[in-house]
Each structure stands twice: as structure tokens, then as C-alpha cells.
Amino acid sequence: MSQKYYEFFCPVKVIAGKAALEHIPYELTGLAAKRPMIVTDKGVRAAGLLDPVIAACEESGLEIVSIYDDVPPDSSTSVVRDIAGIYRQEKCDAIIAVGGGSAIDTGKAVNILVSEGGDDIAKYSGAGILKHPLKPFFVVPTTAGTGSEVTAVAVITDEKKGVKLPFTSSFLLPNAAIIDPRMTLTLPPHITAATAMDAMTHATEAFTCMAKNPLSDAYATAAIKKISQSLLNVMDNPKDAQGRLELAQASTMAGIAFSNSMVGLVHSLGHATGAICHLPHGLCMSLYLPYVLEYNLESIREPLGELLLYLEGPEVYSATPAARRAEATISALRKLRDQLYKRCQLPRTLKETGKVQESQLDHIAEMALDDGSIMFNPKEVTLEDARSVLRRAWA
Amino acid sequence: MLLKRIQPMAFQARRLYVDIMFQVMGRALQAVSEVDETVQNEARALPQGLLFEMMVMPEGPRLIVEHIGDGHFHYHGQSAPRPVDLSIQFKHIAHAFLVLSFQEKTSEAFANDRMLVDGDVSYAVRMTRVLNRLETFILPKLIAKRAVKEYPANLHLPEKLISAARIYLKVATNFVETVRP
């Protein structure tokens, strides 16, 4: 009997493409919601990204009752409590999170408080605490990378205790993710590159780590194909709405893939580097991806070789001997990183970031070893292994 | 018909096996923390007094150990003196049996959603490394290779045999002490 077993779950309605935002009123009405609140950050508002969302709702006679636009990059328990207070005061009945990872995580956490009651979000921290569906919750991503719109996780900082609180429940998943190319059209080049490489890493790790499964594989490969076909075009022509949509869809697909198959050492190192050196997550992903794939190579040779088809297309794939495809995949990713460096100086090594000291590598290695995602890395990682990957990524 | 008669006995035997394995593992965790420096270094990063539980949902067999400080564990048996801080929970006795009979690696069981972590995930990762280290000592290499993601290349036979003998001796002594009225 086969020992293979997997679980796959994604109940999020994906609403994607031209005029997708204009579907929000209809979808909210379908959930009997009439008084939505928008949760976002100042950057999103300043970029004018709320305007089409508000216009789409108002045109259908749906009033946005309240807008909270002060979500910080690392959202905290007090921010969540404040927003929940406004939601209750204004008698809202739905949340629309517009933004990147932080605004989306904040929206998820606020939804816990306004649905379950109370002011202390910390008591809902952990896995499987929530037992009931929450209030209607929509997500409009404004970056194409995190995949938070389809993940059942939120992380909020408890500023009093100085710790990050994880929340895990399938009830955190939004009712709908609205992918509209207008939302990512004005993303600056380096953020476009870093977030796309974040999605690329989600998909690559989903396809090569221990919890890979046939359904997440399908999403992962489709995401890799979309990113490799569209990313450089978008970098050269930022107003390419079709390319932007492809990247946004790829991000959501990669999110569906990794939330059902988890990620590995790239994320362990990336989380640690982000915490210690305050580097953006997407940049860390892009930076570590080839070095970790080289480290894992002998454990993932077969699936990694398959990815060449989605990265380079059928001609290159068929012209490459099967035994060389895994190495060719890593080369293709390195080539992509070189192209991004040429276009927006997205760093390829820790030294190129200018924000990491060589003396910090040991600390990064130690912290990475305690990261939850290391459990799903296909190859065992010791402290010395992590140090060695970091040394290779240094310069 | 025969299958219907045998099945309850098989289920009972499986539960008994998991129960006994938890008792052995709990005592062995205490023992390995007394003899192995690597385990002690791993455990030192855990808060003193941390109660770790491994159990089968909903109310199945369990083992509870406490980090009593300086990298040492104390086995509490099946009952905790206070609410546990970290719990690794098998969703079903069949899943615990797969892992404890070395048909599925601990890391595979996590990847296959057989178990849940309730508590700080970084401590769970650390405890998984401790469990892996324990298994590499107390199991023959052939079986240990099925239980852990990667058998450590630097663990040679003399060290393994000496450590295993010391762990088994401590486990046996602990069994005698706890069974004695």
C-alpha cells in the first residue's frame, strides 16, 4: 500500500482580471454584508490605490463605512485592538483588506476579534483555536508576491512581550481574493522584482520540499511558468497590464501551492535574515534560492529538473539531457536574478545588500535552525550546513 | 468473519504498542539528556520548567517531559503537574503507530499533516531534533535510517553503542524504580 498521503484545502473564491474590483459589491451582497470597512496602510492610500476600490463600491450604492489607513509594516496587537474598536463603533459587517502582507494579516486578526469578541487578540494565538466561521472578509492584494490572500496564517507582534504571535486557522482564509491588475500597475521596479521572486520561491519550494503533492504541484508549476514568461517583460514595460495580471495570478497560485505543501530552508534563512538584518522578505528569498537549491540538489534532483520545462520552455527542456536538468534549473534562476540585477540592482548576494555584516552569519544560521519551515526541507540541516549555505550566499 | 474478530484485538495491540513506546521514549528522553552533550545543548535553549507533551488525540496515550534546567529532562509519565507549554499531537492512534513503528519519519508525519503543534513552533523544531538524536542512538542503524530524515554521518559505532547502552540502562532502572511500590 502506498505510504503517500496529502491534504489540500483552498476555499477562497478568486476573482481575477479586468474590472475585478467592480465585483466586490455583488460579492459582499451575496454574503449579506452592507457596511464594509477597509483596512490598509498609508502607502496604499497615497498611491491612490483605494480610489478604484471605493469608486467600484459607491457606483453600486455600497458605502464604505470606515477606512483605517494606518497599518504599520509590522502590525501589532494594539493596532488590531484599535481597528476592532472602530469596526464595532461604526457597526461594520465586513472587512476589505487592501495592501500587502501586513494589511492582510491585520485584516485577518481584526476579523478574529470582531467575530469572536474581546479585545485581547493574543488569546486566539496558536493553531486550531478558532472553531467558527468569521465575518465576511475580502482581500485585495497590492503586491504580487506574498500570497497572503490564500494562506490560513497571520502573524501579529505583541509589542508588550516583544514576540510575534502566530495565528493559524482555515477560518482566517478570506471569502474572496480580488486580483485586479490596476492594483499592481504602479509598483516600483525593485518591489516588482523582489515580490515576484518571493512568489517564485514559494512555488519552487512548494514543488521541491517534503509536503509536495499533486495538487500543489499543479499550482506551483503554473505559477513558475507565468513568472518566468512575464517578469522581465513587466520590468521593461511596467504599464503592461496583462503582464501585471499574470504576475498577480502567479503570486496567488504560488500562495495556494505553498500553503498546502509548506516551504523549506530558503524561508528559514530568509525569516532569520529579515529578523536580524531587517531585509525585505522577497529580497531574502531571491538571494538564497539558488544556494539552497544547490545544497538540497541531491535530494531534489528529479523535481528540480522538471522545473526547467516551466522556467525555460519545451525547447530548452528537451535539448537538455535529463541528468543535467536540475543544474540547468538553478542556472536559469541565476540568469533571471542577473537580469533583475541589471534592471533594478536586486541584490544576488548578502554582500550586495550592503545591510548584512559577515559577523552576523552565525546568528542567522542559529536562528534559521529553529524556524518551523526547516522541518519541511527535504534535506536535514545542521548548524554547520546552514553556515556553509550562508558563506556561499555571502559573496 | 475472522477479520471482524481479529480487528478489535489488532486495534488493542496497536494502542498498547503506542502506549509502551511512549513510556520508553519518555524515559529515554530523560536518559539521553543525562548522557549526550548535543541533546543537552539543544535542550538548554528551552525555558526551564517547559512542559513538553506528545500525545494521541483526543484522549489517547501521552508522554510528558519537563526541561528541569541545564539541558536535562524529567519524565512525568502520562500526567502533567500543570498545563503543558508545548504539545505535539497525533491526529489518530494509527498515525502515532506509523511513526512509532518507524514506517513514517517524524518529519514526514509533520509534512503529511499527521500531527499538530500546539505551542511555540521553534521549540517543537528543537524537540524534533532531540527525538531524532535519541532515535539514532537507541535504534539499530537500519531502522534509525527509516525514522530520521538523515542518519548523521559523524555518529560512529563505538559512540552509538556506548550511548545506547547507557540510555537503555537508565530507562530500565527508571522502569524498575517507577514500578516498585
TrEMBL record, chain A:
GO molecular function, one term: metal ion binding
Keywords assigned by UniProt, alphabetized: NAD, Oxidoreductase
Protein's recorded name: Alcohol dehydrogenase
Domain Alcohol dehydrogenase iron-type/glycerol dehydrogenase GldA: start-end pairs: 11-181
Cofactor: Fe cation
Gene3D superfamilies in UniProt: 3.40.50.1970, Dehydroquinate synthase-like - alpha domain
Domain Fe-containing alcohol dehydrogenase-like C-terminal: 192-394
Alphabetical list of SUPFAM superfamilies matching this protein: Dehydroquinate synthase-like
Superkingdom of this protein's organism: Bacteria
Pfam families: ADH_Fe_C, Fe-ADH
Family: Belongs to the iron-containing alcohol dehydrogenase family.
From TrEMBL, chain B:
Source species, domain of life: Bacteria
Name listed for the protein in its UniProt record: SCP2 domain-containing protein
